[in-house]
C-alpha cells in the first residue's frame, strides 16, 4: 500500500516549509517536533531522532547538581537490518545502502502542521520518513515510513525503543493484544527508573500496516533497547508503507505510567493512521487560524516569523500547568528550568495571539505559589519570592555557583506583571480572583518587605543581580526597582477590580521606590553604574514593556546611551527591545538594523534554528524568538496590552519593501490588523 499524502514534496517552496539537502552532518543543529509535552529533535542520520524530552518530568542529574528535565525513551527510530539474511542477500543489502549509491538526503519541516520529513534516495531505493508529535494526543508521536523499490530487494525495516543512558533498571516487554473482530496488535513496552528513582518512566509503541497483518519479529539484543522487525521482499516498483505509534510518560503525569503508555498507544493504533493525521492537522490549523503573522511581499521574513511562532506553539499547550524553558523542548539547555525568559520574553506574544496557552504558563506559577512563599520565608521576607530557576516543584533550582539564584529577584515582579497583563487581555475575573490575585497579593507583600528606607524617605532595593546579569551585588537596579513598582501597582489595581481594599502599603511603597538618573537625565542602571558593557536589556525595559518611561525624548536618551554599551555577543532578545524603541521614536533605519541583529546572526545550519548568542551552538533559543516576535508585534505593529485589551498605541512605519504587516488572531476576540508600508 502506498500513501500519496505521506511524503512531503521537497520542491514545495512556500512560507510554511523549510527544506535542506546535502547538509554537513558535523555542522548540524536539529529542528524540534513537539506538541507542548513531548519534544523530538531531528538527527542528521536518516530515520533517527537525536533525543526525546518530556515536559514536566525532572530529576537530579547532570549539570549543576540540581534537577534536570528528563530525556526519555525514544520510540521514533527506524533502522534497516541485514541480520538473518543469506550471504547473498546480505551482500546485496550492503551494496544497496553503501555511500556510493546514495543520491540525496533531504530533510524538511512543515511548520503549518508540525511535520518533519526525511527523504533518502539510493540508486535502488527511496525511503521517506515523516515524524509528528501529535498535537491532539499530548504524549504520543507518530512515524510514517514509505519505501519504494527501484530494483528487486530484500529488506528488514526495524522499529526500536531505546533508553537514554540516564535511565536505570530498564525492563523491556512484548505482547500482542487481541481485539475482537480485529487483528492482534503488537505492543512493545519499556519501563525504567529516573536517575535517583524519583520517577517511573514508561514507553510503548506499535506497528500499523492497514492493508495487511505483518509477521513481526521481536528482538532484544542490548540492555536498554528492543525492536520489532519485518522481513519483506519488494519487487521493482513496489512500495511498502507502515506507521509506528509511540507514547512516553512518567509517574509525574500518571500514577501507572506503564499501563497508560500502553493504553494511549493502543488508542492511537485503533484510531488509525488517517484519523490521527486529520486530528493532528486540525489542531495545528486551529492554532494558526487564531494566531499568525505575515509580511506581504517578503516571504523570507514571513517564514522567519512563522518559524519563531512554530516554536512557541510547539513548546507549550493549553490546558496544562507546564511552562517553557529558554530552550523549550529542544533539548536539555538550562536544565529545562523556567526563568524570566518565560514571562518577559516568550509569554507576551503568546498572550496576544493564544491566551489559552498563556493561561497554562501562569497556571505553572500558581501551582508553585506555596513553594515561593516558603522561599520568601527562608530568605527573611514576607509574601512569595519565586525562584530564579524553577523546576517541577517550584524550588530554587539554580546551581549554587550562580549568584542569580539567591539574588536575581526581579523574577517575582515579572510574574506579577504577567498576571495583570493576562487579565487585561482576557477580562477573566474568575481567573483573577482564584489565580491571579492570590499570586499578585503575595508578590506585592514580598516587595513591601524587600525595600529599605533611605534618609530622604525614598526606598531602595539593595544587593541584587540585575536584568543585566553582568551587574552582580548592586543596589537600586533600574529594572528590578521598576518591575517592583509595577507589580505593587498592579496588585492594588487587581484588588480594586475584585472589590477589595488594597493594602495601602502597596501603592505607598511603589511611589517611594526610586529610579536613579545621571545628571543629564539618562536613567542609571544601578547606584554604581558608570557606563560598563551590559549583557542585555535592563534600563530600556522601563520603556517597553513596563511603560514607566514613555516620554519620547527620555526614551531616546536612554536608548542612545545604552545601545553602544550592549555586549554584541550577548543574548539575542536585548536587541529586539532597542529595535522597538528606535522604531517608536522615529529612527526606522536603526530599528531595522537591530531587528536583523536580534536573530539573523544567531541562525545555525541547516534549518536556521536560532542559538542564544550570535555564532552560538545551543539552539533552539526560544527566548530570542519571543523577543523577535515582540519586535514584530509591538515594534512594527505598534500593539501593546492595555486596559482595553490589545490595542495599537503607537503609529509605526514599516521598512521599505515590506508590503503589509498582517497580524491575525489578536486578543480574546481573534481580531486581525493590517499595517501598510
Automatic annotation (TrEMBL):
Keywords: Hydrolase. It comes from the Bacteria. Gene3D superfamilies: 1.50.10.10, Glycoside hydrolase, family 65, N-terminal domain. This is Trehalose and maltose hydrolase (Possible phosphorylase). One of its GO terms (biological process) is carbohydrate metabolic process. Pfam families: Glyco_hydro_65m (PF03632). Residues 398-599 form the N-acetyltransferase domain. One of its GO terms (molecular function) is hydrolase activity, hydrolyzing O-glycosyl compounds. Coiled coil: none annotated.
